[in-house]
Design brief:
Elements (H helix, E strand, L loop, with lengths): L26 E8 L6 H13 L4 E6 L14 H11 L5 E4 L1 H5 L4 H11 L3 E8 H6 L6 H7 L2 E4 L5 H5 L2 H5 L21 E3 L9 H6 L23
Parallel strand pairs: 1-2, 1-4, 2-3, 4-5, 5-6
Helix pairs in contact: 4-6
Length: 233
Amino acid sequence: MPSDLLPPALSASVGRSIPTWGDGRRARIGLLGGSFNPGHLWHRTIARRALKVLGLDQVWLMVSPGNPLKAGQAMAAFDARMATARALGDGRKIVATDIEARLGSRYTVDTVGLLRRRFPHVRFVWLMGADGLASLPRWKSWRVLVHDLPIAVFPRPGQNAPALNGAAGRAMARWRVPARRASALALLSPPAWAFLAGAQNSISATAIRKRGGFPASARSTAGQDGQKTGEQS
């Protein structure tokens, strides 16, 4: 097994520890969404860095049932992808969750809207890599998403300049917060975002699959319930 792909850990019930209908918790929570096809050590690195630099109480690894921007690509079964996400978390500070599948939302902007309504006292921050920022204009209602919650962007090799100089990076430039103020990002009213410098990692799910480190079946592309949801990597 490749060193950047961890074996499954923790019980399957961990994914349901976050209630579908929400609660009254008060916390700063980072949302790291994606296909997790498979989840890998870069996801854990980002989660840990977000906890520390952004002063978060928790990071949710939100495994999407499917991804409309990756239609036609080999996608492993939802349970298999959830297992790799659970392996990255500890069930306390970093929590893998299937809440997006339970919400039945098709796109990130819809998921975030539901979470904000169901967890009204939580200060959410969206976490993404520079590659996500570069592709953001392809996401449904991405400008609405930018106004819904603060965003933290993490560097990725070869993606940083295209992201910062791309359509989204230019459109959002006036709302960029200096990295030195990142600890306050969760408390800022959106639109607000920060690009966080730091160690870069070229690990990719595609590379893991190509070298046989994770079996994926194109038959499962639509996800557990036949819906395609989420634009994340």
